[in-house]
């Protein structure tokens, strides 16, 4: 596929720890060919202070995942630049610096949203990274930090953009530090989309994306009236079929939209391959449990793929997955007969 990274950013799937690993990303490609996908965040220490086997596991991906961005967490300019060079050698399409994660654990290592309080440090890192790679370097941040008036979004963007970063994906919430969990930080701080819209007005020459609480295609449409791109988070994971219409609607691709059942059947070949490598079935299928969300048989599908499948028995795993497909096919046939 001939990739234009700027076009693919129009709609993207957010980097999510514990979610957007290679198995999920291959599954997402059964639904959208064009939306930009992100890895889970990988820290500079994890990439630099490990053996080749571990590094390969952290960076490896399937070629179908393109367009694909590597999200890196860190603050040391030298370490970040080395990792950016790795990203290019592994043929990623973009490098994204995490300046939005509110986890206390990562902030103790000067990673994530705490860096918004030190825009000069971020700018130094961006400048150094650009010396080591020709890949686009982007930043994902928040609109601010609660109870820290010294953190100003426009000041942050001013300084970091001067260092050569022209793309900012902004989660439209402030971050609460040290008092609530990362999960609560995705829900409790109120959404302030207008702040992100105003950022685009102030910086028309910068590429501004919006993230946070986006759950419908109509919401995506609305946001794109004010900003350059939308990044979909939890909805793309909990309700992945949400992604199935994106190519037609937002990338003007006149392609047939696969049914949920067709998507699962398409993903089967990949599952067979991964199981043959010794991967537990549940490690793969946990990412697809939401594909029949709200559909007849959806709960039984989830139950079948979550109960008693921790065994690495190859044949048994395939039988279980095929049984799940057969069960959903029966539900589909019943729905067709019943005119549903």
TrEMBL record:
Keywords: Flavoprotein, FMN, NADP, Nucleotide-binding, Oxidoreductase, RNA-binding, tRNA processing, tRNA-binding. Signal peptide: none annotated. FMN binds at residues 15-17, 71, 140, 171, 211-213, 233-234. One of its GO terms (molecular function) is tRNA-dihydrouridine20 synthase activity. It is an enzyme of class 1 (oxidoreductase). This is tRNA-dihydrouridine(20/20a) synthase. The lineage of its organism: Bacteria, Pseudomonadati, Pseudomonadota, Gammaproteobacteria, Candidatus Johnevansiales. InterPro entries: Aldolase_TIM, DUS-like_FMN-bd, DUS_fam, DusA. It catalyses: 5,6-dihydrouridine(20a) in tRNA + NAD(+) = uridine(20a) in tRNA + NADH + H(+); 5,6-dihydrouridine(20a) in tRNA + NADP(+) = uridine(20a) in tRNA + NADPH + H(+); 5,6-dihydrouridine(20) in tRNA + NAD(+) = uridine(20) in tRNA + NADH + H(+); 5,6-dihydrouridine(20) in tRNA + NADP(+) = uridine(20) in tRNA + NADPH + H(+). The record marks 98, 183, 186, 302 as: Interacts with tRNA. Belongs to the dus family. Belongs to the Dus family. DusA subfamily. The active site is at residue 101. Catalyzes the synthesis of 5,6-dihydrouridine (D), a modified base found in the D-loop of most tRNAs, via the reduction of the C5-C6 double bond in target uridines. Specifically modifies U20 and U20a in tRNAs. CDD domains: DUS_like_FMN (cd02801). Gene3D superfamilies: 1.20.120.1460, Aldolase class I. Its cofactor is FMN. Residues 13-312 form the DUS-like FMN-binding domain. Its EC number is 1.3.1.91. The keyword rRNA-binding does not apply. It comes from Candidatus Johnevansia muelleri.
């Amino acid at each position: 596929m001939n990739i234009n990274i700027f076009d693919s950013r129009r709609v993207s799937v957010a980097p999510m720890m514990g979610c957007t690993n290679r198995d999920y990303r291959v599954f997402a490609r059964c639904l959208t060919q064009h939306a930009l996908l992100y890895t889970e965040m990988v820290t500079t220490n994890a990439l630099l202070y490990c053996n080749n086997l571990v590094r390969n596991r952290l960076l490896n991906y399937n070629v179908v995942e393109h367009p694909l961005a590597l999200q890196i967490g860190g603050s040391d300019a030298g370490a970040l630049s080395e990792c950016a060079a790795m990203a290019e050698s592994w043929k990623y399409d973009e490098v994204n610096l995490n300046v939005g994660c509110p986890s206390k654990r990562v902030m103790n290592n000067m990673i994530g949203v705490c860096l918004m309080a030190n825009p000069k440090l971020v700018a130094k890192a961006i400048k150094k990274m650009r010396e080591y790679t020709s890949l686009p370097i982007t930043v994902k941040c928040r609109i601010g930090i609660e109870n820290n008036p010294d953190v100003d979004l426009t000041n942050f963007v001013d300084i970091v953009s001067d260092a050569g970063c022209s793309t900012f994906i902004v989660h439209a919430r402030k971050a609460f530090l040290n008092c609530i969990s990362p999960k609560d930080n995705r829900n409790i701080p109120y959404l302030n989309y207008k702040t992100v819209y105003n950022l685009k007005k102030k910086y028309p020459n910068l590429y501004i994306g919006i993230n946070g609480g986006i759950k419908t295609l109509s919401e995506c449409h609305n946001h794109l009236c004010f900003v350059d791109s939308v990044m979909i988070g939890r909805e793309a994971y909990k309700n992945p079929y949400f992604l199935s219409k994106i190519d037609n609607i937002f990338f003007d691709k006149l392609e047939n939209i696969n049914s949920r059942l067709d998507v699962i059947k398409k993903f089967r070949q990949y599952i067979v391959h991964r199981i043959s490598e010794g991967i537990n079935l549940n490690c793969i299928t946990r990412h697809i449990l939401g594909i029949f969300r709200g559909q007849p048989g959806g709960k039984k599908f989830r139950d079948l793929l979550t109960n008693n499948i921790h065994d690495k028995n190859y044949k048994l795993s395939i039988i279980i997955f095929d049984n799940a497909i057969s069960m959903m096919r029966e539900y589909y046939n019943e729905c067709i007969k019943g005119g549903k």
